[in-house]
Specification:
Helices cover about 35% and strands about 25% of the residues. The protein has about 400 residues and is of the alpha/beta class. Bound molecules: aspartic acid (ASP) and magnesium ion. Aspartic acid binds near residues 41, 135 and 136.
Length: about 400
């Protein structure tokens, strides 16, 4: 008998029929002899609707109240799923994040889980119930209701699976699993059977939207196997597991794309020690994550520093740069939100030379200019003009032999 955490995303509980399907699936999983803990997202686009309502009454959206508002979405789902389970003859009980013992820090709208005290969930399982937990939420050390950031139900599911030592955390969604590229961009993308935690982290960080990055980090840290699968077909999907050294690794497993970043260039910067430190300290103090960084070789004692930040941080980052510009006597600050990033990811590239060369050749042959480059041991990313990204992904998918045979 296994303990399975099943997380259902917004589309999986999008209407009454879908909720009844979920109840049916949970019932069958139980009848196969497993214990099940369910984690739900808000129905469909309900969270977006709530944010819109908040915008209509307040330009500032006080974070504590926004969190209280947004957690309502998951509460609706959990109660309806429990009612559907009851109709299916499965005994269940719903729990808010707070009732489930999810303790977070006080950083409203993007709180981090500090600790899980799943006593009530364990008691419910022991009593033969299916606990249904509202995802995306917890209670802070100050006893206020918090949310974990958009897409945070994945984190709830993985964290609960870790705390309960579940055998697997199943993430049900509206796609069949993780693909070798976004199928909307690359019709020949293939569904992947197995992806390592490291590869999935790189993919989630560079544009794959199937799983929230933090949930993958959490799963890796606690060794929770993930199974991403469809609640429309109920077919097996993609497993995300610890890398098995005996397995043969794909040199390149997937191509990702990301249009969520913008580029900032600070030009005419004095080329002396301490300048970069000052600039990036200023950004860090404003809570801004910097991604790619390029510094050009100096001429006449001056240099340019370019870097990328999340589009949503662009205004704040620009302010910080304008301040530092004055302090260090830089010539100018420019921003560019017309960029996109394409990345190739694969654990096998560690031991396989030539991946970078093939990537650059492929872009060159298709007349695509590279503006910035960054690498990790299992990823290479290039920043391009936004309107060339889709083309780049398709050509790279072909060049690295990832295209599906038919379709
Ligand atoms: N409902 C929340 C959101 O839309 C959390 C989630 O779906 O995981 O971001
Ligand atoms: Mg979601």
């Amino acid at each position: 008998m296994a303990l399975i955490v099943q997380k259902f995303g917004g589309t999986s509980v999008g209407n009454a029929e879908r909720i009844r399907d979920v109840a049916e699936h949970v019932g069958r999983t139980r009848e196969a002899g497993n214990d099940v803990v369910v984690v739900v997202s808000a129905m469909g686009k309900f969270t977006d609707d709530l944010i819109r309502m908040a915008d209509e009454v307040s330009p500032t959206r006080p974070p504590r109240e926004l969190d209280m508002l947004l957690t309502a979405g998951e509460r609706i789902s959990m109660a309806l799923v429990c009612m559907a389970l009851s109709a299916r003859g499965v005994e269940s009980a719903s729990f808010t994040g707070s009732q489930a013992g999810i303790i977070t820090d006080t950083d409203h709208t993007r709180a981090k889980i500090l600790e899980i005290r799943p006593d009530r969930i364990r008691e419910a399982i022991d009593a033969g119930l299916v606990p249904v937990v509202a995802g995306f939420q917890g209670v802070s050390t100050e006893k206020d209701i918090t949310t974990l950031g958009r897409g945070g139900s994945d984190v709830t599911a993985v964290a609960l699976a870790a705390a309960l030592k579940a055998d697997v955390c199943e993430i049900y969604t509206d796609v069949k699993g993780v693909y070798s590229a976004d199928p909307r961009v690359v019709p020949k993308a293939r569904q992947l059977a197995v992806v390592s935690f490291d590869e999935m982290m790189e993919m989630a960080a560079t544009g794959s939207r199937v799983l929230m990055l933090r949930s993958v980090e959490f799963a890796r840290r606690h060794g929770v196997p993930l199974h991403v699968r469809s609640s429309f077909t109920w077919e097996p999907g993609t497993w995300i597991v610890e890398e098995d050294p005996t397995m043969e690794q794909a040199v390149v497993l997937a191509i990702t794309d990301d249009a969520s970043e913008a580029k900032i260039t600070v030009g005419g910067v004095p080329d002396r020690p301490g300048v970069a430190a000052q600039l990036f300290r200023e950004l860090a103090d404003r809570g801004i994550n910097v991604d790619m960084i390029v510094q050009n070789t100096g001429t006449n004692g001056l240099t340019d520093i370019s870097f990328t930040v999340a589009m949503t941080d662009l205004d704040v980052a620009r302010e910080a740069c304008d301040e530092v510009k004055v302090e260090i006597g830089a010539a100018m600050v420019t921003t560019d939100d017309n960029i996109g990033r394409v990345s190739v990811v694969g654990a096998g590239m560690k031991s396989s030379p030539g991946v970078t060369a093939l990537m650059f050749e492929t872009l060159f042959e298709n007349g695509i200019n590279i503006e910035m480059i960054s690498t990790s041991s299992i990823r290479i990313s290039c920043v391009l003009r936004a309107d060339r990204v889709a083309d780049a992904v398709r050509h790279l998918h072909t060049a690295f032999g990832l295209d599906a045979a038919s379709s």
